[in-house]
Amino acid sequence: MSRKSMLNIVKIKKMKKDGIPISMVTAYDYPSAKLSEEANVDIILVGDSLGNVVLGYNSTIPVTLEDMVYHSRAVARGAENTFIVTDMPFMTYHGSIDETLRGVRKIMQEGHAHAVKMEGGKEICPTVEAIVKSGVPVLGHIGLTPQSVNQIGGYRIQGKDAKDAQRLMDEAKALEAAGAFGIVLELVTEQVAEAISKELSIPTIGIGAGRYCDGQVLVFHDILQYASPYMEKRFVKTYADIGSVIREGLGNYVKEVKERSFPSAEHVFTADEQVLDSLYGSDTSKEE
Question: Which range of residues forms the domain containing residue 116?
C-alpha cells in the first residue's frame, strides 16, 4: 500500500477553493484510525462523542481532558499520515487563557493531535484567537453543540427560522475572523448550511447539515453500524453492518465452546514425548 500524503490546514483550505469535498471520520482508537487511514480519509476527528460511543456515558459532559489525550494518542499511532483533530472537552476552554492553553498543550504534545476542535460561537472567539496565535490550528463547531445540550434544550435542529439562521451566520463569520481554519456545522438546516458555506472562505464540514457543505463527517461506528443496540439516525447512511456480523461471530464462538468443537485438532500444539516425561515421569522411572 502506497504511503499516504498528510494534509495540513493550507491544503485543507485549498480543497475548498478547488471544490474538492473533504472527508472526515470520527474515530477513537488504533484499529479504527488505521482502517480509516487505509480508506484514505482526509481528516480524523477524535471526538468527545467517545463518551457516548465507547465509554457508555449518556452525554459528552463527563469526558475529561485525560480521556481525550488517551484516545488521541491511540488514534495518532494508528494513523501516522492523517491530519488529526481532537476535541477540547467540556469546560476546558471557558476559564482563563492560561488554563486553556495548558489543556491545548497536553492534547498536542501528549495526544499528538495536529489541531483542536472547540464548540461555540462568538463567546469563544477570543479563546480561539489566543490558541491560533500560540501556533495551534482550531476547528470551530456551531449548530447543535452537544456540550451545551442542557442549555439549548436537547438535540434540536438549528437554523429553522430567520433569527436563528442569522445567529449561525454571525457565529461562523466571527470564528473565521478569529482564525479558525474550518467549521463543523451540526444538525443545521440545509439552506442555512449552504449559505454559510458560500459566505466563508474557510471550509465547512457538515454532520446532518445537508448536501452543500465543503465536507462531511460521520462517526466510524455509525458508518459501520458498530453498536448494540444501534440507534438509527436520519442524517447517517450505513455503509456496512458489522454489528450483526460481530454478534453472529461471537454467538458461534460461544456455541462451539459449549459443544467442545473449539478448539479442534487444527488449533492445538503438540509436545515431544520428552516434554511429557519431564512433566509426568516416564513408565521406566515409575518401575524403578
Answer: 9-240
13 is in an annotated binding site: no
Q: Does the pTM exceed 0.85?
A: yes
Q: Are residues 235 and 251 in the same domain?
A: no
99 annotated to bind ligand: no
Structural domain includes residue 4: no
| Segment 269-283, tens digit of pLDDT | 988 888 878 887 765
Q: Is the peptide bond before 229 cis (omega within 30 degrees of 0)?
A: yes
Domains identified in the chain, total number: 2
Burial-class residue 129 by CB neighbours within 10 Å (0-12, 13-18, 19+): middle
Q: Any binding-site annotation on 199?
A: no
Q: Rounded to the nearest 5°, which phi and psi values hold at 216?
A: -135, 150
Q: Which residues are catalytic?
A: 186
Q: Is the domain of 73 the same as that of 195?
A: yes
Q: What is the pLDDT of residues 111-150, one digit of tens each?
A: 999 999 999 999 999 999 999 999 999 999 999 998 887 7
